[in-house]
Write a structure and sequence with these properties.
- With about 375 residues, the protein is an alpha/beta fold.
- It folds into 3 domains: about 5-150, Response regulator (Rossmann fold), CATH 3.40.50; about 155-280, no CATH class; about 300-365, no CATH class.
- Helices cover about 40% and strands about 10% of the residues.
- It has 14 helices and 11 strands.
- The strands form 4 sheets. The chain has a 5-stranded parallel sheet, sandwiched between helices.
- Strand 8 (about 300) and strand 9 (about 305-310) form a beta hairpin.
- Helix 5 packs across helix 8.
- The longest helix is centred in the middle third of the chain and has 19 residues, at about 130-150.
- It starts with a strand and ends with a helix.
Length: about 375
């Protein structure tokens, strides 16, 4: 049976906005808001067996509904009341997604506002690449919510791996959250586990750590099949494909049988070692970003989204309170100087600002 979402907006033509998400596993029913906040909540309760998740527009008062009434409430106020009622057991648990046309929405909302939503989708950034990614996430969010509602599940079941492979500090934090409502557990897993480089890494970071330019390597997908046993298979894995870094390193040590440690091996050497061990000849080594010295890649530049050794990067702002299992994100010197894709990293961290200013002076002199 397909996953079904309700989408509430003020635009009578809103169904067109979500057509790109739909496939055989997902359907979305768009509708205008009800006449009042109370009627909207009554509707969601009455039909709660008909939907598996909710998509909300932030501003619901730009256009009147079919009864010529403008909403006197926002998507955040509806989401807040839903979360309260879910906690009280009045409403079932289901994902809530914020769907907004404003690319500054995330910055505009207070943290308490963003915490109400499992993910935020920017309408302006949707294209033929983004739609399928979000479709998988919408489907997986609904399935994951239902799965996590089972309080008897062990962490080994939730993450589909023996507890001994998981950082005990992460497990301790998650044990406590299992007592919390499902939306709090889900938000934690998405923001602090799945989308934070640390215990898990995404495909781009995986390629960087193996020293590979996946865009030009025609054997990349074959290598992914070789690494399939190292893939994360736990909750939300279809929406957020990830790999366990400790299993990838274990594979390097046991299958590649290199005499050098993965972290301290240059990219070209990593690739040659992997090619010899796997027989995959069409793997191309990643190249350094301009102004970088090392090709012992371990992360991605937030500006260029290309492989980077952290020693050649500047820590980006907003990472003062990382959990112990999380790794900081970096921007390369080149991207920082040119402010490349600045919206993706905003600024360098305070601890890096003195060095950043020195670099600006250094490279301005070299131009003279």
């Amino acid at each position: 049976m397909a996953i079904h979402y309700y989408y509430i907006d003020d635009d009578p033509e809103s169904q067109k906005k979500v057509e790109g998400f739909k496939n055989e596993e997902l359907s979305i029913d768009a509708m205008q808001h009800k006449d009042s906040w109370e009627l909207q909540l009554e509707f969601l309760k009455e039909y709660e067996d008909k939907y598996d998740g909710l998509i909300l527009d932030l501003k619901l008062d730009d256009l009147p509904n079919n009864n010529n009434i403008r909403a006197k409430f926002r998507g955040t106020s509806i989401a807040q009341e839903i979360r309260t009622r879910q906690k009280e057991g009045i409403l079932k648990s289901f994902p809530i997604i914020l769907f907004s046309a404003n690319d500054k929405t995330k910055q505009a909302l207070e943290k308490s506002g963003t915490d109400l939503f499992d993910i935020i989708i920017d309408k302006s950034k949707l294209d033929e690449i983004a739609f399928p990614i979000y479709t998988r996430q919408l489907i997986d969010l609904s399935k994951g919510y239902k799965y996590l509602c089972d309080s008897s599940l062990t962490t080994a079941k939730i993450f589909q791996i023996d507890d001994s492979f998981i950082d005990t500090r992460f497990l301790s934090e998650f044990y406590e959250l299992r007592k919390a409502p499902v939306h709090i557990q889900t938000k934690f897993l998405i923001t602090e586990f799945l989308t934070r480089q640390g215990l898990l890494i995404d495909e781009d970071v995986l390629a960087a750590r193996l020293g590979i330019n996946k865009a030009t390597s025609t054997d990349w997908n074959k290598l992914l099949k070789v690494l399939s046993k190292n893939k994360y298979n736990g909750v939300f894995n279809n929406g957020w494909p990830r790999w366990w870094i400790n299993l990838v390193e274990k594979w390097w040590n046991e299958n590649i049988k290199s005499e050098s440690i993965l972290r301290s091996t240059p990219a070209k050497e990593r690739v040659e070692i992997i090619k010899r061990a796997t027989g995959l000849e069409h793997l191309i080594a990643a190249e350094k970003i301009s102004k970088a010295d090392s090709d012992e890649f371990w992360t991605l530049c937030k500006g260029y989204h290309l492989p980077l050794d952290p020693v050649d990067g500047l820590i980006v702002q907003g990472q003062d309170n990382l959990y112990p299992w999380q790794e900081p994100e970096y921007v390369s010197v080149e991207a920082a100087l040119w402010r490349t894709n600045i919206d993706d990293w905003i600024s360098v961290a305070d601890v890096e600002k003195e060095r950043y200013e020195e670099l600006k002076i250094l490279y301005s002199r070299k131009k003279q």
